[in-house]
Design brief:
This protein is an alpha/beta fold and 287 residues long. It contains eleven helices and ten strands. Bound molecules: 3-hydroxy-3-methylglutaryl-coenzyme A and magnesium ion. It comes from Bosea lupini.
Length: 287
């Protein structure tokens, strides 16, 4: 069978969590509908995090409940703890994602706890998810660099990967939060993670601050990864990672795989029109 790739759309969460001007809930719902129309089958829809920490995601319940669900599409939610998981599942999330980091300083700044405490917070999340029969992805932030600690050792990423797998996560998203990574350092990090997890359980989540995200995707692909995250229009960044620019644009990711002759199942023209549309909505909100 020909090689194929799964692209996870994180724009409605990772992209819009950083939109200070605020995007209307109706626009978020329209965006999610358009992404499904374009053929995205996994859409990280919102984040059930504290609205005091991330006000842009305060409408999480309205978004998750309001989504016009399409068959074959999984609508997931990012959650930091049991409270978020309960609310996300009650609102109809079909998958959850927890997030920790390979850097203590970033974990503390992002979630107000240590890495070990974050893992403890996830135990009740896993129990709720298991009862509901939904899968849980685990993000490892700062897999290459941390805004506070600098370069991160591949072994630190591998250790957190192993802990998330032991918890019961079905997929680990190795995340270059700052987008400063190089293909060489990406390969070293992925190789370390592969000592603890099969390639089928790893995904690549690359921000594109330095314009090397596609090269980093290619390095991870060579090592067997087949799941990559994109954010339509390159929206995004992390509010607790100063200097992190947008995520890798989903349409660029699709173009990259199309050029290699690898099936994505995504209609690039439709996606590009969506990118243009949401960029226009941002401009309307800002000004
Ligand atoms: P805390 O202040 O230590 O928590 O925050 P707390 O338990 O003391 O609660 C404080 C208040 O938050 C309470 O409300 C709780 O009820 C409420 P109050 O009684 O004061 O009114 N609260 C919640 N509200 C809604 N939903 C919840 C929730 N939990 C508590 N789930 C906490 C700890 C984790 C909650 C906070 O730090 C937080 O929400 N952090 C989220 C930060 C965030 O969303 N960052 C961006 C996403 S991560 C990312 O972008 C990286 C990623 O893309 C990968 C990569 O690129 O690296 C995934
Ligand atoms: Mg991110």
């Amino acid at each position: 069978m020909a090689d194929s790739v799964t692209i996870v759309e994180v724009g409605p969460r990772d992209g819009l969590q950083n939109e200070k001007a605020g995007i209307a809930t109706a626009d978020k719902l329209a965006l999610i509908g358009r992404l499904a129309d374009a053929g995205l089958s996994r859409i990280e829809t919102t984040a059930f995090v504290s609205p005091r920490w991330v006000p842009e995601m305060a409408d999480h319940e309205a978004v998750m409940r309001g989504v016009d669900r399409r068959p074959g599409v999984t609508y997931s939610a990012l959650v930091p703890n049991e409270k978020g998981a309960e609310a996300a599942l009650a609102a109809g999330a079909q998958a959850l994602a927890v997030f920790t980091a390979a850097s203590e300083s970033f974990c503390r700044t992002n979630t107000n706890c240590s890495i070990a405490e974050s893992i403890e917070r996830f135990r009740p999340v896993m129990a709720l998810a298991s009862r509901a029969g939904v899968p849980v992805r685990g993000y490892v932030s700062c897999a290459l660099d941390c805004p506070y600690e600098g370069e991160i050792a591949p072994e630190a990423v591998a250790a957190v990967t192993a802990e998330l797998l032991a918890l019961g996560c079905n997929e680990i998203a190795l995340s270059d939060t700052l987008g400063r990574g190089t293909p060489e350092r990406t390969a070293a990090m992925v190789e370390a993670a592969l000592q603890r997890a099969p390639a089928t359980m790893l995904a690549g989540h690359f921000h594109d601050t330095s314009g090397r995200a596609i090269a980093n995707v290619a390095a991870a692909w060579e090592l067997g990864l087949r799941v990559f995250d994109g954010s339509v229009g390159g929206l995004g960044g992390c509010p607790y990672a100063p200097g992190a620019a947008g995520n890798l644009a989903t349409e660029r990711l699709v173009a990259h795989f199309e050029a290699k002759g690898i099936a994505t199942g995504i209609d690039r023209a439709c996606l590009e029109a969506t990118a243009e549309w949401i960029t226009g909505r941002r401009a309307a909100s800002t000004g």
